[in-house]
Amino acid sequence: PEWYLTQVLMWIGNHAKFLDDKIQPILDKAGSSVNAGLEFSRALVMLILEKLAADIPCLLYDDTLFCHLVDEVLLFERELYSVHGYLSSLPSCMHILSEESCFQRWLTVEKKFALQKMDSMLSAEAAWVSQYKDITDVDEMKVPDCAETFMTLLLVITDRYKNLPTASRKLQFLDLQKELVDDFRIRLTQVMKEETRASLGFRYCAILNAVNYIATVLADWADNV
Questions:
Q1: Where is the signal peptide (predicted)?
Q2: What sign does the CA torsion over 91, 47, 7, 106 have?
């Protein structure tokens, strides 16, 4: 997908000056409210929506290819809005990703890869060690690496779904994040039970620091609607 997504971004960028300098004055003179650049972008995005509608059914059950498609679409959307000034009121790829079969598959794949990431972060050698253990002014909370990586994972998921067009779809992703927080809590509890004989030990204290850090960050996020 990156081939045609990049191609469309190149077309939009390459034609911007011509549309602004040559076409927009004609539209303005005619009293039209049409923005030439945005209209050009909108028409090209409509082509992408057609292409995605044809591609997605073929990729739904190949986790790797489907996940790659979603990643590329999200990168495309980010550049379309931030670099080319596209408007959220116009058609976008997020509408295709929000369609039921595609959206449910996205949720499933997102959860699968998140759980795999959690497995790897908790089994890593440095899981309970702080990245900043040697820098005292940075490491007041003594946050173990697994807790920091987990919160980064949640933040990345938020960043991926924040531009979905409807609140109901965003809430489904929020439910997924709540599931992941609960799953992480259970994992911490399991590790803690193994450490109860050494409640002043290194790993037991690291678990308490992890819980404190996660609670603090979630409280900070509470203002983010």
A1: none
A2: positive
